[in-house]
Amino acid sequence: MIENTKQAVTRGAHHIGLTVPNLDTTRKFFIDTLGYEQVGEIADYPAVFLSDGSIMITLWQASDPVNAVPFDRKNVIGLHHLALTVENDAALDSLYECLQNTDGVSIEFAPEPLQGGPTRQMMCSIPGGIRVEFIAPAG
């Protein structure tokens, strides 16, 4: 048997870039609701760079938000959703409670087992219409 010694060229995600209709609203969501820190900005682009200490999210302002096409997960090629890890079940449940009362957030489904296993997930749309999945790994 020949052993496969080929390694992937990449080493994880550096950042995720998202175009949003209202940069300030979505930035505030990541900072005020999820606890991210703003680590940079390009004011004349405009764009902001946010981090949770593990991953960086780049938010770009849509140039014409009124006429921008909202994402349709079943018919548009590209990002289907962004999946972010939370520490544990308690953090997922707490986040769910918070998001139910957060302006601009639409809960798609509450925390539930991921494919019947011990890992749990929830899905929502955040301000700007981006679908985000939050996952609490089995622990």
Q: What is the topological layout?
A:
Layout: E1 15-20, H1 23-33, E2 37-42, E3 47-51, E4 56-61, E5 82-85, H2 89-99, E6 106-113, E7 120-125, E8 131-136
Parallel strand pairs: 1-4, 5-8
Antiparallel strand pairs: 2-3, 3-4, 6-7, 7-8
Q: In words, what does this structure look like?
A:
The protein has 139 residues and is of the alpha/beta class. It has 2 domains: 14-64, Roll (2,3-Dihydroxybiphenyl 1,2-Dioxygenase, domain 1), CATH 3.10.180.10; 79-139, 2,3-Dihydroxybiphenyl 1,2-Dioxygenase, domain 1, CATH 3.10.180.10. 16% of the residues lie in helices and 34% in strands. The protein contains 2 helices and 8 strands; from the N terminus they run βαββββαβββ. It has helices at residues 23-33, 89-99; strands at 15-20, 37-42, 47-51, 56-61, 82-85, 106-113, 120-125, 131-136. A 4-stranded mixed beta sheet has the order 1-4-3-2, covered by helices on one side. The protein has a 4-stranded mixed beta sheet with strand order 5-8-7-6, covered by helices on one side. A hairpin with a 4-residue loop joins β2 (37-42) and β3. The longest helix has 11 residues, at 23-33. The chain is globular and about 45 Å long. The chain starts with 14 loop residues before the first strand and ends with a strand. The mean pLDDT is 92.
